[in-house]
Design goal:
The protein is 47% helix and 17% strand. By secondary structure, it is of the alpha/beta class. The protein has 2 domains: 198 residues, Rossmann fold, CATH 3.40.50.11720; 181 residues, Glycogen Phosphorylase B (Rossmann fold, 3-Layer(aba) Sandwich), CATH 3.40.50. Strand 6, helix 9 and strand 7 form a beta-alpha-beta unit. Helix 1 crosses helix 2.
């Protein structure tokens, strides 16, 4: 009965989203992109051996990425190649990574109807399905289970307020979905304990694969000559993925409290509307897009995408945006360079932020006074700044290794990777 009601719900949502898509660009991408899914999968042949990764959005993709790239590095030595299929639920992930070079197919996950689940798995016939962090689609999982396809969750994280851990009809239904998983690789001991309470013991605390990803970043060349020329060996604050509220705090500080020995680099989350930001400062501003950059300016606005990670390597302190909205953006990228981090108050869903706040490598601000106070501390107290820097760097190094756990499991449970081991 519950599956019947669920399927009615999914079909209803699909129809209801059509008129919404006429006025909402993201919903339009969501629906139109799914029209192409089965066409894209035609490149998968019956004889191909496929490993399928599902990521809700961009953040989850970054967690799956170290595993994909490790598999592909081993794939180059194999006598028979694995094909990688990556699916996204959200346009914000798909649109940015639709041309990802290490995947053979990148597409949207079709709506979770019984028909779509069967058709999708018929086309990709995966040897293994890997779900990243969360997203538990009952029809897909039921079909995976019935076909006895190895299914694992990586970088998983569970909270006690999720339906799995409550009483009632919905809880029983959702627990059934979890039975499709052969193994859970979770980020923390709390997740393991929660799963144990509902009698899932096929769990290991492996950590978060994003740590492996960001640690690898430190080994590449992150030098940006134009940033070095702009900073002029002054004290540098890099503000990444900022929203309006974040920017209002930064504007107040820069206009009223900044000294001549400070430089500011701001990479807004939305780069299509930066005129207001540029005009809000009383000090000189230069842009990445300027043909001739003004290195005497105090503020550098990054009106492009793809370079923020490297920019963080030039920072003395980082402000990571989103903490006054739905939640902070990626703090691991500045942390891997040993940069102290400032965030807004909405960070409770992010384990790494909770950890670093507790360890005093990350600092929470609620208003202009808080931001002014903490930035003054970083400028005037080198020991304070150095301690925070060492804390962030040590936290990253102590947290790497999740990818190896998962790759070892895949090797033991994938016939192709076992063949690769013998041919190495």
């Amino acid at each position: 009965m519950i599956y019947f009601l669920y399927n009615i719900f999914v079909h209803s949502i699909g129809w209801l989203l059509i008129p919404v898509s006429w006025f909402h660009k993201k919903i339009s991408l969501f629906l139109n992109g799914r029209k192409e899914t089965f066409k894209k999968l035609h490149s998968i042949k019956e004889t191909d051996t496929v490993i399928w990764f599902h990521c809700a959005s961009l953040g989850e993709f970054e967690q799956g990425r170290p595993i994909i790239e490790k598999l592909q590095s081993q794939n180059s030595k194999a006598t028979k190649k694995i094909k990688i299929v990556v699916t996204f639920f959200s346009p914000s992930g798909y649109e940015i990574r639709k041309n990802y070079e290490f995947a053979d197919v990148v597409c949207y996950l079709p709506m979770d109807t019984k028909k779509n689940a069967k058709h999708f798995l018929d086309q990709i016939h995966p040897e293994m399905a890997i779900f990243v962090k969360y997203e538990f689609w009952p029809n897909i999982l039921k079909e995976l289970s019935q076909r006895k396809i190895k299914t694992i969750l990586v970088s998983g994280i569970f909270r006690k307020n999720q339906a799995f851990f409550k009483s009632g009809f919905n809880s029983t239904f959702m627990k059934k979905s979890l039975r499709a998983f052969d193994y859970f690789f979770v980020q923390d001991t709390n997740s393991k304990k929660l799963l144990h309470k509902i009698n899932f013991n096929n769990v290991c605390v492996s950590g978060d694969t994003r740590f492996d990803r960001v640690f690898e970043i430190t080994k590449q060349d992150n030098y940006l000559s134009f940033i070095e020329e702009f900073t002029q060996k002054k004290h540098v604050l890099v503000a990444g993925s900022t929203w309006r509220k974040d920017e209002e705090l930064l504007i107040n500080y820069i206009n009223n409290h900044a000294t001549d020995n400070e430089k500011f680099i701001i990479a807004p989350h939305n780069i299509t509307d930066i005129d207001w930001l540029k005009n809000a400062f009383t000090k000189e501003v230069t842009l990445f897009s300027d043909t001739k950059k003004n290195n005497q300016a105090s503020i550098f606005i990054v009106d492009t995408i793809g370079i923020l990670t490297k920019v963080y390597s030039h920072a003395h302190v980082a402000y990571v945006g989103g903490g006054f909205g739905s939640g902070i953006h990626n703090i691991l990228e500045p942390a891997t360079f040993g940069v102290p981090i400032i965030i807004g108050p909405k960070y409770q869903k992010f384990k790494e932020a909770i950890d670093l706040v507790r360890l005093k490598g990350c600092f929470v601000v609620h208003n202009n006074t808080d931001l002014t106070s903490i930035l003054k501390q970083f400028k005037e107290n080198k020991d304070y700044s150095n301690n925070a820097s060492q804390t962030t760097k040590k936290y990253i190094k102590n947290s790497i290794g999740a990818t190896k756990y998962i790759i070892d499991y895949i090797k033991k449970n994938s016939s192709i990777l076992q063949t690769q081991n013998h041919t190495n």
